[in-house]
């Protein structure tokens, strides 16, 4: 109703007197007339509670929330609305300092949410979960045993999984849509399932409205009919779900939201590993650090916006605009302390840190954080986190757990597949070595290295910064792509003119050739450059043959082209208008998810993942990574900004040299050692040269059997508490 809407607007603008008056008037109207929907009363009561919270009348707010909860349960039983009201009650109790009561209420909300038919990922906001985490930290200080404390933190671990990246959700949605479009039988089955769910939910709403009437107005005939219809639809839904599971398991795998269990996660961590989870709220944030035997929970005294500004500040120093900028080492240390200060003692017991970043943290390479303050700007002497720990980023707990719990049964037969230097802007002949034609190069007939045709390496003295560096592609890209914002990408192929307006990447040809040489391995090394680096050629390959797949090209983020709703990679566009998206020169995330890969490592080099206007693309990059993971890639090595080609070549060749032909050293450690070598050299110690690259995946030592061996090692003290095992008694 209009008055309730106005009250919410007044509340948003901090006009509390007006908001209270509007809710009181709305409630009076509902009390005087019986012809309004029953749920309106619940909605107004919730708003009254929100106003009371803002006024500091916490006890009064809980009274309103409890009344709204009773109405919702009478109308709809346990639903998303029930869960949201319970979270508000828990928050009110947390604000009153009733931490035990708050935890019990939060626990009830989460248990109900887990049973909802459509999953629980979109039910909670980070701020709601922040109050839960705050109550857990406060309550843990009074629990009698460490085991009880660990059990409570295990509950919070479950709650942390209830936040989800919108970019990932959109990517997975697009992937499921593409999967259905290529399989008419699956599409028909999914449509039947969704239709049955809609009809059942409508019947449930009608039944709730009928049972909410006064006794003399209710119709047993109508209620019985609706109950029968609901039961029939439930049986129909079950049949469709079973048929999907039997015939199209990939679809259900793509759309499921099953959480990771804490004891299972810990069983796949080695004794020298820890995984860090983050929850970013408006006013404050939280970190959970999980090792094989312990869970730590700590508060971060910064909200998401403050963290965004910190990441923005660090990233700005890594944008080359004519010269390399000074990187603020002390700012980096401040960010490190804010994120890890309360849990860093655990770092002395580990050598591999896995981070699950969210929001702006997805755009932060954690290797560029500094663990100790330093005077001056001698980057080679700074205590970078990467000096202490190998670091792996992972887009989600689900991705990490699935990688760790799955063993590759068969290694790919070929060592390397490289796609780079796509034909985009008008190229000079030297960029392709011979005219504008490129050939597929096998390891046996690779030409001598192509000399880069632009100065890309900076000379940095110990305490001064170099000048007169060329402006890298990453800084040109947003202006060029701006021309594409008038073209709608969704629903059809992208015009080739949009891609050919992007800057070319001639140095990536030499980069790919040099990296392929350093890898070695069995079988041919296949390289596609220039005009051959197109989407049709990529699709025609047996991609499961390759152990490493290397892209040296531009990355596209949602919004960089008009209607571009998902991230993607740019290849050479066709010479004539593309018939459909399968040959237009852009590999969308939803397209990537449908490929079948068997790669230990996929490299995304020269990809720009930092958006313009102060925004970052890390969250969108996560969607792209998830697509590669779903296709079968084990780990990805990606760049957060465009790096001068000489530095990229130096870093990447060293990474693959460290890996060895059998990948025996692990991607995380190989990247760490390569970055450490760059830091030791004062000419390349600035993080602009080495900090862009991050490993995304699980970071385990590659090779059959290694992950299985980890899971068979029994942890000394795996936390096995579940929510119901931490017994709390509610106070009156």
Please report the total strand number as a whole number. Answer: 14
Mean pLDDT: 79
CATH class of the domain at 2-163: Mainly Alpha
The largest pleated sheet is described as:
11 strands, mixed
Strand content: 5-15%
- List low-confidence stretches: 427-486, 609-615, 708-725
What would the principal axes of the Cα set say about the shape? globular
Label the CATH architecture of the domain at 2-163.
Alpha Horseshoe
Strand order of the largest sheet: 3-2-1-4-5-14-13-12-8-6-7
CATH evolutionary superfamily of the domain at 2-163 = Tetratricopeptide repeat domain
* SS field, number of helical segments: 27
Helix content: 40-55%
Structural class assignment: alpha/beta
End-to-end Cα distance, whole Å, is: 35 Å
Q: Quote the CATH topology of the domain at 2-163.
A: Serine Threonine Protein Phosphatase 5, Tetratricopeptide repeat
Query: What gyration radius follows from the Cα positions, in whole Å?
Result: 28 Å
Give the topology, please.
Blueprint: H1 2-12, H2 16-32, H3 38-55, H4 58-76, H5 80-95, H6 99-114, H7 126-140, H8 146-160, H9 166-181, H10 184-211, H11 220-247, H12 249-255, H13 262-267, E1 273-280, E2 285-291, E3 295-300, H14 304-316, H15 329-340, E4 352-356, H16 385-388, E5 390-393, H17 397-404, E6 414-422, H18 473-482, H19 496-500, H20 507-519, E7 525-530, H21 535-540, E8 546-552, E9 555-556, E10 568-570, E11 586-588, H22 589-592, E12 601-605, H23 618-631, E13 635-639, H24 645-659, H25 667-680, H26 687-690, E14 693-696, H27 706-712
Parallel strand pairs: 1-4, 4-5, 5-14, 6-7, 6-8, 8-12, 12-13
Antiparallel strand pairs: 1-2, 2-3, 9-10, 10-11, 13-14
Helix pairs in contact: 1-2, 1-3, 2-3, 3-4, 4-5, 5-6, 5-7, 6-7, 7-8, 9-23, 10-11, 11-12, 20-24, 24-25
